[in-house]
Amino acid sequence: MVLRVLGSPRLTNDLDYFFVPYKSKKDIVAEIVTCLRFLEGAALDYSLNSKCLRVALTVDQTTIQVEAKVAMEVETTTASTRLFSSQFDLPPRIIHVVDTNNALANKMAAWNERRLVRDIYDIWFLLQMSASPDTATLERRLRKPSYSRLVKKEDYFRGRTCSEFYDFLRGWVAALSEKQIVDELSDYLPPEETSGLVLLFRAALARLL
What we know:
The protein has 2 domains: 2-98, no CATH class; 100-206, no CATH class. The model has no long low-confidence stretch (mean pLDDT 94). The chain is globular and about 50 Å long. 42% of the residues lie in helices and 18% in strands. The strands form 2 sheets. Strands 1-4-3-2 form a 4-stranded mixed sheet, with helices on one face. The protein has helices at 2-5, 29-36, 82-85, 100-114, 117-128, 135-143, 162-174, 178-185, 191-194, 197-206, and strands spanning 14-19, 43-48, 53-59, 62-70, 76-80, 94-98. By secondary structure, the protein is α+β, with helices and mostly antiparallel strands. Helix 4 runs antiparallel to helix 5 (117-128) and helix 4 (100-114) packs parallel to helix 6 (135-143). The protein is built from 10 helices and 6 strands.
């Protein structure tokens, strides 16, 4: 969603929020559920797991997913919703979003754990915004990855440093085909946005040191 605010055309699977400062996800459940129930005609279902509070919200036969996490502190920056809200004739707002360097590091770690092309797109977009991955965050996530069942053990990243990881990431993207990009991103981007992306991905990743 932050990428949409910053001008990206990519659609999203869900809405992610951080609530600060909270120690436990249990502390936010009642307020979030109460707030969402104020939406007219909305039906919701929610659950807590080890990572977040997840809410499935259905309005007029359309379902969206809201994921809420907690932290005692999160490094943030401010952004304007102008580019996004103007599409819907809504007034712009100044909002807090996760610091882009930190977001980039976490997105890289997320790609390592699940190997989705849409994560590569997000990495590329943030690099275009002149973000530089926070190395401390990235190395911490790389030390204790939580791999998806879709990632085979022989494909796990075995290194420990950011430099090793960048080489690993570049190797994966070097083998990526334009057809794979179109197939995986067709639900998230219009066709004119996917053409030539593989070359842009490789060029952006080549600049990582």
